[in-house]
Sequence to fold (339 residues):
Amino acid sequence: MPTTSQINWAKFRVSSLTVLGLVILFVLFYLLTGGTLLQKKATIYLYVPDSTGIGSGSPVEVDGVEVGKVTRVALSGDTRPDRIVRVTITVERSWLASIPVDSYAQLSAETLIGDRFVDITSGTSRTPIRPNGEILYKEKPDVLKRLDLQEFQKRLRTIDAEIGDIEQGRGPVGQLLRTSGMYDEWRKLLQKSQKAVDAVAARDGLLGRAVYTDRQYQALLESVRSIDQTLARLQSGQGDLGRFLRDDARYQQLTASVVDLRRSIAAVDAGPMFQTAADYTQWSRGVSGVIRAIDDFNISPLMETAQVYETLNGMTRELQNNMRDFREHPQKFLRLKVF
Fold:
């Protein structure tokens, strides 16, 4: 027969296991609820004209993020067409800050035949919705109502015609799929392009030498070295330019020349020629006298007739003939006298 201590120990073990199982069950339930079991909840209401596809447990999303569930769908008792059904939504209180008072809700679905959910689009107001508040409902446009069936049928016919052309080998895509002509042309073009690339990248080409050899690099390095040597010679004072940069004697000489030139210009500017108008008046009178002399010569009788011109022309022609005769027969003009 078990003793009292054994019975008490057995009771303690049973109680400990029971408590441990309850703790494990509570932790599992807490994790399955996403860690929101102990967080405070808030209720908001949505009035809709029709609750088709919405029921208890339907998700509630704000800008694509799930924030709560629909807990109840019931008739509101209101006779207005857009407030026939009242949807009770439960969300965590922390999410109320993400739902401004000017937000609106729509009943959306992932697919045309899928279950619907409450899709809340947040507004721009800085005031969040209060617990037990009402969110505005906005009717979502029906895609099927806006769809023009005749236009859709016309597009289907166009697509069917294009597919038929492709199957018959008409058009570029049809020729590519049904025949090998365009494929062969593209293949030849690719082969030519490959040959051109191979020719450019060949070792004996310009690009090939630049890629496979260091000839271009050495030429560039030699140019850089030449520039560096030139700069070094200038820094050491070699050559005319180097001496000019290192020694300021030429600079001082050039500066002195500029100063002398400025002094000469200042002296000329300070002279009587530029200070008074006497020299200018004298020069002007001399030029006027020359102009008058030329005008008098132009109106003289010598320039009015061609007699003087003819006389001078005849004398010039005679002198030219005598000079030609002298060059050709100089003996005619030589006279030998014997004493």
Residues 325 and 331 are 10 Å apart (CA to CA). The radius of gyration is 57 Å. Residues 8-38 form one domain.
